[in-house]
Design brief:
Largest sheet: 10 strands, mixed
Strand content: 25-35%
Helix content: 25-40%
Structural class: alpha/beta
Radius of gyration: 30 Å
Oligomer: single chain
Number of strands: 12
Distance between the termini: 52 Å
Shape: elongated
Order of helices and strands: HHHEEHEHEEEHEEEHEHEEH
């Protein structure tokens, strides 16, 4: 039976160019290296190397065998490295980017869980609605919603993001609670867009999709402004769950038409394709994904 150690010794001889250099690298006598190569050749039944006092050359069989076996050795070495990484406690700093308002729900809790679990880890969170170049900004991973534009990134889909319908308790006490999507036409709505007088909301509900025309007294092209207007009582808003969650949790906003929502795109975690996914980053992604689906199961966040 062929000894894998002999194959590794053969590869080192080829890579260093001599028995002497390979022996020095492996920390064993030159005679042992020579004996192991001879044993490998006997097992294979072919000569792998042509040896003279002045040169060392591969035979055609040796060249073919090295090309195939070296790839297998690299895969084994990579598997050993990954196993060692998996056994080691993740340590170091992880730099995360996410949209503004995104940290007010599961991401914040995921970060706190991560820090509590891995005492040697630290997190730097950068909140911005700008889609930053991850490599230029030293970011290890980013959460992104909607359509992905940068094909150079590795993306892992976590689910689909939704917008919720919500309003302040004061507004609902004053104007009533809509019972159907059609009732929105008689309500003030806070519009995310250029105009407060004309907007179309596409809602998904128990009976499929329904388009409703809405209007109101306030419109803005920035979600934080839309949220603040809803909190201030200026109408019913359609907000991403990440923006609305904190206000719903503390009672400043109340969901309406619970059975209806609007899909706003995919939720992905992305990282540079040029980077080896470190144990630290892998551990955080897995924890964040677990947190996300726990929240979904508890009906805290509508993600699927």
């Amino acid at each position: 039976m062929i000894d894998l150690n002999d194959i590794a010794i053969f590869a080192r001889v080829i890579e260093t160019g001599s028995f002497t250099a390979a022996a020095r690298l492996l920390g064993m006598p030159k005679t042992t290296v020579s004996r192991r190569i001879a044993a490998l050749e006997r097992e294979l039944g072919v000569r792998l190397l042509q040896r003279t006092t002045r040169s060392l050359n591969m035979t055609d069989a040796g060249r073919l065998y090295y090309a195939e076996s070296s790839q297998a050795l690299r895969r084994i070495e990579d598997a050993n490295l990954r196993l060692a990484e998996a056994r080691a406690e993740p340590a170091g700093t992880i730099r995360i980017s996410a949209p503004v308002g995104f940290s007010s729900h599961f991401l914040q809790e995921a970060i706190f869980d991560f820090l509590a679990t891995y005492a040697k880890a630290s997190v730097e969170l950068r909140l911005t609605d700008e889609r930053l170049n991850l490599i230029d900004n030293g970011i290890d991973l980013a959460f992104r919603t909607g359509q992905l534009e940068d094909s150079t990134l590795i993306a892992r889909r976590l689910g689909t993001t939704y917008r919720l319908l919500c309003a302040s308790p004061a507004y609902l006490a004053r104007s009533g609670i809509p019972a159907t999507p059609a009732d929105l036409a008689s309500h003030d709505c806070v519009i995310a867009g250029p105009s407060a007088s004309h907007a179309q909301w596409l809602l998904e509900g128990p009976h499929g999709q329904e388009t409703v025309s809405v209007s109101g007294r306030f419109a803005a092209n920035e979600m934080q402004a839309v949220k603040e207007a809803a909190v201030a009582g200026y109408g019913i808003a359609q907000l991403p769950y990440g923006v609305a969650f904190g206000c719903i949790a503390d009672g400043r906003l109340q969901r309406v038409l619970d059975g209806h929502r609007t899909a706003s795109g995919g939720l992905h975690v992305v990282y540079p394709s040029s980077k080896h996914l470190s144990p630290l980053v892998r551990a955080f992604i897995e924890l964040a994904e677990k947190r996300l689906h726990q929240a979904d199961a508890q009906n805290i966040l509508p993600v699927s």
